[in-house]
From TrEMBL:
This is Squalene monooxygenase. Residues 157-430 form the Squalene epoxidase domain. Belongs to the squalene monooxygenase family. Catalyzes the stereospecific oxidation of squalene to (S)-2,3-epoxysqualene, and is considered to be a rate-limiting enzyme in steroid biosynthesis. It comes from Leucocoprinus birnbaumii.
């Protein structure tokens, strides 16, 4: 087998994009890249079908924007959020759009682009084991089968990059004692609806469901619309009955027939919604010579559709940094760029990661304080202007700023408290005619106590997510500790600014 400059394991989203990106680096000698994938047939998944504007921008930087053409991808212009019969329109900023599509068709388009790239060999083989020499990964062992026999091969390279997805077979061995394990709170149950019209065409629809997680819908081709229903773990024994009884009645009636038809026609497909914080690579705790990328390394809740945007943005940055290393066999030089990569990706990746889980906690509210925040969040969006433009810019990967995220998150928290005091609240029993009333003065003392609980809940939601993004550091690394302290100070400042901004512009 020939020696490659780079071996990439996994040809999903990140793998082909990185292979193409590295092949176009302005180097004296074009790198030789082996892109390995266990099956080159079109994949069939129920997630990875919505690419935010930030992901489109990343594709453009890689020269891969053409991969969105030629397979019935649908322009996406924003969101519509539904709650108890009410809706709010959340458009992307003018001039930006995302795309939604069948996942497999996009993957095949990326693979085709990688295969056309100079120096890239797209190989159908299953990576089974990392090859190590002197404490460093120098390649992978593979198997490939024909109708008659099985072949075992080895692919050696200066750098091995693992992009084998959320169920990575190599995550544990690469990260070693630095390994973080994915946390799964729920699963998306998916189906394809045929010939339906969403409340706002070319917009993703998020329906807030009482007693369950949110439902996400978006058009993925001219006739097909994906529906993803979040069901918390443990899953009910009779999943279909649970969906028909507790979820479907809360969705627009115009969709009921199509949902019943889809679930009766095909099995309910499921995908775990996992969160995996990005542990720094290239340290003494992880293996030398190998890099994890994409969902193999870092995952967030798919509610906001940010996974491909983070992965493609990571590819853009990693390509640029590796391009600054003359000799990829010099691991110490690669390590320095990996440290830069870890921190330079933070603004976008941390923003998307934190927002995805924080929004899920609010939209899937399962206690009284979270329900207050969910109501406040919906009413915050109803105000329009910057109350929409800021959050959707964060969600879409256009405005990569944890500081702006903290500002809006705590503005929502303070506004939610204001709503408790000043907006009509439901006071009738569940089975009675709805009756609403504004809180009276004698209720203020109890509401003041509840306000403290609500704000504390907001901190409990946001704080651990922030910590998961900044806590992975070496105790002896003074520079990194200073970064952590400065980021923490920024978030505290954002909370204070959010309170002041809310008083001046919202309340």
């Amino acid at each position: 087998m020939p020696h490659y400059d780079v071996v990439i394991v996994g040809a999903g989203i990140a793998g082909p994009a990185l292979a193409h990106g590295l092949s176009t680096l302005p180097r004296g000698k074009k790198p030789r890249i082996a892109l390995l994938e266990r099956s080159l047939a079109e994949p069939d998944r129920i997630v990875g079908e919505l690419l935010q504007p930030g992901g489109v921008i990343a594709l453009r930087k890689l020269g891969l924007e053409g991969c969105l053409e030629g397979f019935d991808a649908i322009p996406t212009l924003g969101y519509c959020v539904l709650d108890s019969g009410k809706s709010v329109h959340i458009p992307y900023p003018i001039g930006y759009e995302g795309r939604s599509f069948h996942h497999g068709r996009f993957v095949m388009s990326l693979r085709a682009a990688a295969k056309r790239a100079e120096g890239v060999d797209l190989i159908e083989a299953t990576a089974t084991e990392l090859i190590e020499d002197g404490g460093r990964v120098v390649g992978v062992k593979t198997t490939r089968k024909t109708s008659e026999e099985e072949f075992k091969d080895e692919y050696r390279a200066d750098i091995v990059i693992i992009a084998d997805g959320c169920f990575s077979n190599f995550r544990a061995s690469v990260m070693g004692r630095a390994l973080a394990k994915p946390v799964t709170k729920s699963q998306f149950c998916g189906a394809v609806l045929e010939d339906v019209t969403l409340p706002i065409p070319k917009h993703g629809t998020v329906a807030l469901i009482k007693g369950s997680g949110p439902v996400l819908m978006y058009q993925i081709s001219e006739r097909d619309t994906r529906i993803l229903m979040d069901v918390k773990q443990p899953l009910p024994a009779d999943l279909k009955t649970h969906i028909f009884t507790h979820i479907v009645p809360q969705l627009p009636s115009s969709l009921h027939t199509a949902i019943h038809k889809a679930l009766d026609k095909d099995r309910i497909r499921r995908m775990p919604n996992s969160f995996l914080p990005p542990v720094e690579q290239g340290t003494s705790a992880s293996k030398a010579g190998v890099i994890l990328i994409g969902d193999a390394w870092n995952m967030r809740h798919p509610l906001t559709g940010g996974g491909m945007t983070v992965a493609l943005s990571d590819v853009v940055l990693l390509r640029s940094l590796l391009g600054q290393v003359d000799d990829w066999s010099n691991w110490s030089s690669v390590q320095r760029q990996m440290n830069n990569w870890h921190w330079q990706r933070k603004p976008l990746a941390s923003t998307v990661n934190i927002l995805s889980v924080a929004l899920y906690d609010l939209f899937g509210a399962d206690d009284e304080n979270l329900a207050v925040l969910r109501t406040g969040c919906f009413k915050y969006f109803e105000r329009g202007g910057e109350c929409i433009n800021g959050p959707v810019s964060l969600l879409s990967g256009i405005a990569p700023s944890p500081l702006l995220l903290a500002n809006h998150f705590f503005s929502v928290a303070f506004y939610s408290i204001w709503v408790m005091f000043t907006h009509p609240q439901l006071i009738s029993a569940p089975n009675e005619k709805p009756v609403y009333a504004v809180a009276s003065l004698d209720q203020y003392p109890l509401l003041a106590i509840k306000s403290v609980h609500v704000f504390w809940t907001a901190c409990v939601v946001f704080g651990p997510l922030l910590w998961s993004e900044i806590r992975w550091w070496s105790p002896d690394d003074l520079q990194t500790r200073n970064k952590i302290l400065s980021q923490t100070a920024l978030v505290v400042g954002a909370a204070m600014f959010g309170f002041t901004w809310t008083l001046q512009h919202v309340l």
